[in-house]
User: Fold this.
Amino acid sequence: MATGKEIARRIFRQTLASIDIPGVMERKLLCEGSRLILPDAAIDLSQTAKVHVVAIGKAAHAMVTGFEGILPAGTRVSGIVVAPVAPERRVPGMEYFVGGHPVPNAESWKSAEAILRLLESCDERSVVIFLLSGGGSALVELPLYGEMQLEDVQAVHRALVTCGAPIEAMNTVRKHLSAVKGGRLAAAAGRAKKITLAVTDVPAGKESALASGPTLPDPSTIADVVRIVAQYDLRRRFPERLVRWLDAGKMPETPKAGDPAFANAHFQLLLGMDDLFHAAHHAAEACGYTTRCDNSTDDWPVAKAADALLAQLEEWQRINAGKRVAIIADGELSSPVTGNGVGGRNSAFVLDVTAKIAGRRITVLSAGTDGIDGNSPAAGAVADGETVQRARAAGLDPAVAFRESDAYTFFAKLDDAIVTGPTGNNLRDLRILLAEV
Assistant:
């Protein structure tokens, strides 16, 4: 009989297989003749002088492949693809960059310059298809302040991803410091028709945070940036030249709703939270668990989220006495980096849980659907009621590993790290909590 850890891994694998991006694009996008049909518009591609594609994010390769597959025969496109890994297959007409994540690299900078050049060549006869997925905030970057160098940009991103701020706060700052975020790619495309197709790793209703919202109006403000910088003590972490620029009051506001940049723009969400929940719920039920989905812990600190989700699991057990039960949760948790170890928020969450489930018939898995957890080579980790005992026998201390931000090393030594490699997708982090009878 399969163990709880084996079943949790199976549910995670089956969920990933169910959210295949090319298949989703084929189901959700419709082409009639030369017309691309969207919920709020129909674009006749045969009437356009140029069709450009700008694909940014961890799912960029899959999205380009899927989009190519639904285009009318004979449609020729050109454009730019930026992903964290090189493609297995190159689509003709596309220029490829391997950007850095979670910290921008030289290719991130070069790709931003190339995208801006492409968009500057567009006019009212052009159509630009933006294919966006998570990770774009680092993969494509160019600072607004011209005196900043690549190392300055990298320092800013490192400060943001390690300060413990939720993703929305991090992206608020990124948008206001960047020449390609917070609606600025839409502005750069001028009067061209702009279509954004998205695979989102941000909360529902906050799509402008996806890849830091390069094509959507930005609801955040300079005042929000000032508050976040103070709240997370970022001034001392930022490069001095950036701090001087901020103090001089030269940071411009991002484009807002009603800006002419968005007059001819369309947005369609292809994959989001509901798709992830549906796939995971189906997989858990197929394994024999009465399952409930929850997203109430999004952006919470890992310890608070762990307590809340375990309490939900216990309540669900009481409601369904005598049955195997599961809680499926999504979202990104906050986990400040306090040491120099290897790991990320998913393995940190599971590490926090280990002592709380010790001796109990409970299994907990947390992993990123992109296959990446922080600075580790894993997607996350899995633990059960025997993990603490096994760790002690191996000379491992969960509290020390948590303090040193070394959750991956802890679980790798127990053979409980979840290693998938980059999945080519990026919805949200997925947490699976299983309780046996």
